[in-house]
Amino acid sequence: MPVTVVGPSSIAGGLLAHAGGSDEVVSTAIVFVALWAGWVGWSRLRHRGFSRLPTTGAWALVAAAPILVVVALTVPRAILGPPPVDLTNRPASTVRLAIEEPTSGQQVPQGTTVRVRLELRDARVVPESTSTVVPDEGHIHLTLDGRLLSMTYDSSTPMTLPTDLDPGDHVLEVEFVATDHAPFDPRVRAETVFEVTGP
After folding, report:
1. What is the largest CA-CA distance in the chain?
2. Domain ranges within the chain, ordered by starting residue
3. Using one digit for the tens of pLDDT, what is the confidence trace for 110-141?
4. CATH code at 2-18+90-197
5. CA quadruple 15, 16, 17, 20: dihedral positive or negative?
6. pTM over 0.85
């Protein structure tokens, strides 16, 4: 039975999804520690609490906060990040994918919201990212004119393209990828070309 996938709504040019792995959990924890340390130190220096904390300790906390943020953005990913994906031996999938909207050759006035609807058969879009790959579970990568717009984990929210597209032809490509974000072999993808018309 086909499933119509509509995906996340705000794709206005940015990448929307995260893997949610242990590296992100550790990074988030370190950022919270950095914010707390900076707040405590700053509060003490402004005489708004923590009077038992020596002034030198307060300065140390304020100085440590930005260092911790840099550590949060680099170290956990380097240590705990996902292992590299082997692209030479990819599994096959029986999933079928088609773009229902926009249709091939469809003309869209500039500034109009372009809704994206997909038909996905024999598959489940799942929120988890994992290296344990099964043929019927994964995510949808949406690319417009060669630029990745989103990695969809949700099949219930409407998905639209940016409204500031230039007049002319635009190539929309969608691909059903495995839960490790790498493609199946053969790749499960669909493509359509639509036209944005000027004023």
Report:
1. 71
2. 2-18+90-197, 22-80
3. 988 889 988 888 888 887 777 778 888 998 99
4. 2.60.40.10
5. positive
6. no
